[in-house]
Amino acid sequence: MSDGMVAVVGGGPAGLAAAIELRRRGAGEVVVLEREAVAGGIARHAEHQGFGVRDLRRSLSGPAYARRYCELARKAGVEVLTETMVTGWSGRALEVTGPHGRSTLEPAAVMLVTGCRERPRAARLVPGSRPAGVMTTGTLQQLVYGKGLPAGRRALVVGAEHVSFSAIITLAHGGARTLALTTELPRHASLAAFRLGAALRYRVPVWTRTRVSAIHGRERVERVELTDVDGGRVRQVACDTIVFSADWIPDHELAVMAGLELDLGTRGPAVDPALRTSREGVFAAGNLLHGAEQADVAALSGRHAAAAVTRYLDDGAWPAERVPIVCEPPLHWIAPNAVAPDPDPPPRGRFALRAYDFLRAPRVEILQDRSTLWTGRLARLMPGRSTLIPHGWTARVEPGGGAIRVRLSTRG
Question: How remote is the C-alpha of 133 from its chain's centroid?
Answer without folding.
Answer: 25
